[in-house]
UniProtKB/TrEMBL annotation:
Keyword Hydrolase: yes
Protein name: Alpha/beta hydrolase
Domain AB hydrolase-1: 73-185
Alphabetical UniProt keywords: Hydrolase
Domain of life, source organism: Bacteria
Single annotated GO MF: hydrolase activity
Gene3D superfamilies attached to this UniProt entry: alpha/beta hydrolase
Length: 300
């Protein structure tokens, strides 16, 4: 990954300099150091980026990794606390004849540094719009997995001028709410506040192997980072404001929500969208090939 990633003292100084407010931050300098060790470990499974940058926005600086330098830009938004490293080897599936930007979501654990609150979907959408503008690409094809899909929808509604297309991979809380299982299991894990409880939650939600470096990174984020995030609730009638070409795929066996109902409601709200239900798939979908085929048909 190169000496500039986390080995520098600059990242540590930036994190320490953030003023105290309702923003995400690390619980202590020791917590930050433990997290950065997990972050480095997760990046070992990822391809080497061509550049890393900190994009300024009204809400703080956003860490973005660039792969390639030609072709229509693709911006990847990860699931909750997964960071850009959460794509792992799957990043390679998106690379090729285009520029790919992988983002550490602001307000969650990672190398993005939040300085102002993100209070609602409007703020979240404007943040992502500012990231795209800061990359100097005008508009980008946005791809969001899980929670990242909610962020992409927020941008399509509140910063539409920055969105060339929106691809949603089993997006959470876009057209339906979280399942009861998410609510009660998440509440238990938050109450217990122990790695084993969160590992239990992640195994249930996505069949994730907690020994994987990217999953250990999520656990480190939960343990070491104090997030202040806006509530994720379905967009309701606001979904009709999405005009960008949209592709969405839902897992029929996803336990985080009712995938079939989520697909049905999104079709009803966005008649122009391409919405698919994969009956045998769970929450952790590999839809890279399908996403890229859609983006190519969008003229990119």
């Amino acid at each position: 990954m190169g000496a500039s990633l986390l080995s520098s003292k600059t990242a540590a100084r930036r994190i320490r300099s953030v003023p105290r407010m309702k923003t995400g931050d690390f619980r202590s300098s020791q917590a930050r150091d433990r997290y950065l060790a997990a972050y480095r470990g997760a990046w070992e499974a990822c391809p080497e980026p061509d550049a890393e940058m900190d994009v300024p926005t009204a809400y703080g600086t956003t860490r973005v990794y660039r792969f390639g330098s030609t072709g229509a830009p693709l911006v990847l938004l990860p699931g909750l606390s997964a960071t850009a490293a959460g794509w792992g080897e799957g990043l390679k599936r998106y690379l090729g004849d285009r520029t790919v930007y992988a983002v550490d979501t602001l307000g969650e654990a990672g190398l993005s540094v939040q300085t102002a609150p993100i209070r609602d979907a409007r703020d979240r959408g404007r943040w992502l719009g500012e990231v795209v503008a800061g990359l100097g690409v005008g508009r980008a094809h946005l791809v969001g997995a899980s929670t990242g899909g909610w962020h992409v929808c927020a941008a399509a509604i509140h910063a539409p001028e920055r969105v060339a297309s929106a691809s949603l991979v089993d997006p959470t809380a876009v057209s339906v709410g979280f399942s009861f299982g998410v609510v009660w299991r998440g509440a238990v894990a938050m109450l217990v506040r122990h790695d084993r409880a969160w590992a239990w939650f992640l195994r249930w939600a996505g069949g994730l192997d907690v020994d994987r470096p990217d999953v250990r990174l999520v656990l480190a984020g939960v343990r070491e980072f104090r997030a202040h995030l806006p509530p994720q609730v379905p967009f309701g009638a606001d979904l009709r404001r999405v005009t960008a070409p949209t592709f969405a795929v839902f897992g029929g066996r996803s336990v985080v929500h009712d995938g079939a109902e989520a697909a049905r409601r999104l079709r009803a709200a966005l008649p122009h969208a391409e919405v698919e239900l994969w009956p045998g798939a769970d929450h952790r979908l590999d839809a890279a090939e399908r996403v890229l085929e859609f983006v190519r048909r969008c003229g990119a």
